[in-house]
Design a protein that fits this description.
Length: 129
Amino acid sequence: MIPPAAVCLGLVLVLASMCVLPAQAEEPANLETQISQKFLRGVVNLSTGWMEIPRQVYEVGQNEGWVTGVLRGPFDGIGMFFARTVAGAVEVATFPVLLPPYQPILSPAYVWESERVDDVVTPTAPPTQ
């Protein structure tokens, strides 16, 4: 018998992998896509909210020093854990309701995305000769 935790983890991983869609700059997403993205984002945030605790230790440590990160980071992380988990629960509970907005409640939308614009790697054009 497969343990229920393994089945749940497998389901979350499958749903999260389905959430990775190619960027479509020209076409706005249709309603079904927006609804499914809202549901998947909610499930992912509901299950990965705990990851905010080590993330906030790291983020505060990078920005304000490691002593501050170790002392204050866990408290920031606990606060963000509750915020991300509640946001995920709200998105899961309201995904079938046909009321926009379908944008993420939190920014960044997922715990592993960077908050800083300078962390995002943008492709550069090769030098021309």
